[in-house]
Amino acid sequence: MPPDRRTRFAPSPTGLLHLGHAFSALTGAARARETGGQFLLRIEDIDLPRCRPEFEAAIFEDLRWLGLSWPEPVMRQSERRAAYDAALARLAAMGLCYPCRCTRAEIRAALSAPQEGDGVHPPYPGTCRSRSMADAGPGDAIRLNMALALARLGARAPGFDETGPLHPGHHPVTPEALLADPGDVVLARRDIGISYHLAVVVDDAAQGITEVVRGADLFGATGVQVLLQALLGLPQPVYHHHGLIRDASGRRLAKRDDSRAIRAFRAAGESPAQVLARIGIAALPDTGPPAPAVVP
Ligand code: GLU
Description:
single chain, alpha/beta, Rossmann fold, three-stranded parallel beta sheet, 10 helices, 33% helix, 14% strand, globular, disordered C terminus, binds glutamic acid
């Protein structure tokens, strides 16, 4: 019997949950249930100006309507600033960070290759790399010096284990791949003082997540996240990236696609079982009664 799995569903309250979110949450709950483990909910509201209380309320309501439960209180990223600042300070104390004042337009110009709309994110060209954290000002983003970070890990280059159906097995994460994408990744955005990658890594560790269940669109984010775990000495979860729910034309669903919102089907009189059937799930996983709160 494998050890109890602890999974999480981590939506951002920037829109209504759609069928893709339902699939992700139900998969996470089922994966935890299989081992008698626990399914947690986390509200990823670091980008507070884009988040709305009514979307957060809708997340709770729609997930409960689907039959899911989770321990309360849930973790909210907007309440976790001290933990993120501590992680950033640790990386800075290792000499791995630098402040960056470049705008997107300046980065594009330095690369002298227009990238707009082609989906490719070239690595940062390193304009601010020689700046010191002692000179960091309020208008600066904070970046990770990827070459120094990799040198610090030496032979302990990260890799991760994937249990998802698309790319199962062990995935080495090579220094070349990380230098090419994302390169000197932003750890703290200038507007909100933190980044998605650092927040997710800190929170997955704080919640004791053993398997990260999420959509295949985040497969490419995993390399830098396991690198951050290795640098910060955090336990590394297993990853399970599932396929994405697509519309009839093959496009993956987006938050703006309100016609696929769970509540649109509710409003049309569908039952939870009918919504589940739409995404190929035959039955609700029995997540059992909410377990005692374990969320710090
Ligand atoms: N908050 C992210 C989203 O809504 C998910 C992050 C993750 O699962 O790692 O897409």
